[in-house]
Amino acid sequence: MEPPRSSGVGIDNSGEYSPEIAETLRFEEEIQSLIHPSSFDGSAAPTGGGSFTALLGLPANQAVELLHDSGAREPLASRIRVGEHPVHRPFHLPLDCSSAFPSNATLVDRAARFSVFAAEGSPASSSGRLKAEPQDSDSPPLDPIPTGPAKRKDTGRSKCDVRLSLSFKSQAKVTAKKSKNAEENTDGDKLPYVHVRARRGQATDNHSLAERARREKINARMKLLQELVPGCSKITGTALVLDEIINHVQTLQRQVEFLSMRLAAVNPRIDFSSLDSYLSAECGPVTVRNGPGGVVVDPSLWPTDATAEATRRLLVPQFWHIDLVPPQLQPQQSLTTWERDGAAHSQLLPNPTTSLFLYDPANSGDTNVPHRTAKLKTAEDRALNL
Amino acid sequence: MYRRSFKDTKSSLGSPNPNFSKPMVALRFLRALSLVRCSGPGARSPSYRARGIRRAAYACMAASAGPRRAWSRALLRKIRRRPGRGLRRPRAVIRRRRPVGGGDPLEVALRRLVPGGGCMEYCRLLEEAADYVKCLAMQVRLMQTIVDSASHVNSID
After folding, report:
1. Which residue from B minimizes the CA distance to A254?
2. Per-residue pLDDT reduced to its tens digit, A328-354
3. Within its chain, how far is the Cα of B140 from the centroid?
4. In chain B, which stretches have pLDDT less than 70?
5. What is the ipTM of this complex?
6. 3-state secondary structure of A130
7. Distance from CA of B5 to the nearest CA of A (A)
8. In this complex, is the C-beta atom of A240 within 8 Å of any C-beta atom belonging to chain B?
9. Residues with Cβ < 8 Å from B36, sequence gap 6 or more?
10. What pTM was estimated for this model as a whole?
11. B71 and chain A in contact, CB less than 8 A
């Protein structure tokens, strides 16, 4: 993890946005490349690095101070300062994309804001310490992106980005207050923080920070829910969204009810014995006849990859009896009626013997429908291969 | 009878699988279905069977969601509690955290809908609700497919 790459990496999050971000990225990389060859000296150089500070629209030393403030980024910041010295050549780039900066700033800002959700998303990161950083309150918080911003958990990096974005932003909207907020609220430390952006004028003490973090967590979850429920993405406003979610849940529950009624109605006509055999083929033998009604599924008998289906891999890998039928069909196994039925995986019961769940002899009468079992097999195949 | 098998199925398949394993749910459900059917083919009314099937659906949904989810635990508890267990051993279970703020009617409604939603904070409630909705949707799709294929099979004859 090299610091020069860090801000580039951090900006990568928002890479999905625009070519402008790419330009920012390039700009930063230019700076970094600049920085590397140049020697590291600690002298503050608020001088005619000309274009860079001109971009900021601030007096040079103030800009430098901004950069300087992120303590963790000190090496980088100082390097940036150093980079201001020499060369106008690489700074052509910022001049070119200066027009892009205001939007860049917003986008970079948004990218920085991902750190909030990233940090929230992973509970490990929220060590409970909150860091307030000023932000634009214009754009709504975006969806948490779990992978990208994970890199930005490093406060130092993200702060560097914030610094840069702040400095860019100040060109767009010059508010000295904001930069002062930036200066106030940063310290350089390397603990993973939950990044909460303090809006302008909002309190930055711990309690309100905690509340804000919690609120943003809730908003993130609400976003997730919105995505799950169809038709909720367009709705704005928490109450309506919640309403929609509740409706959806109720609908689903009612559907379960109706479907179960339908299944119950349909049930008597369906022969589930072949189903049982199919199940046994999938899942392994089960001891049959545990008295009136109990079927003990012997956990030790679950085989692993009896077949190619994912289910088997999920089962407890114990190969005890391979009476289990792989789709290639092993005939044989005479252990119990279960296994005998299980032999017929793909051809469905060569011996149309009884069902596996032979609780009552009453059931055995149901199972002598081989022709139907074939059809059921395909049906069940369809059902299971959902 | 079939209730016992639910428990067994759950314990045997044990480990918390993510609910993306739809075949798992399918298997459990089909097994439970056959159990329900076998428990009393002619003797029971369809409505009784329907109730049993519904219980089976919820049970296997909860079982495949894994014990890591609060709603699945609560759902299973609710299902298994029914067979009139008079004697409740006082368990050292921290039940009611009592999240304050029953003021919002929407929140209250959501708590009632999601199993186990009475004790959670709002944040966790939303999380559990998301997972619950996902699992419910999958279960509904599964059941729909089964019903469709079953009726299709029947219509072929």
Report:
1. B140
2. 433 433 334 443 443 333 333 333 333
3. 12
4. 1-21, 31, 35-44, 82-101, 154, 157
5. 0.82
6. strand
7. 6
8. no
9. A267, B2, B49, B52, B53, B56
10. 0.46
11. no
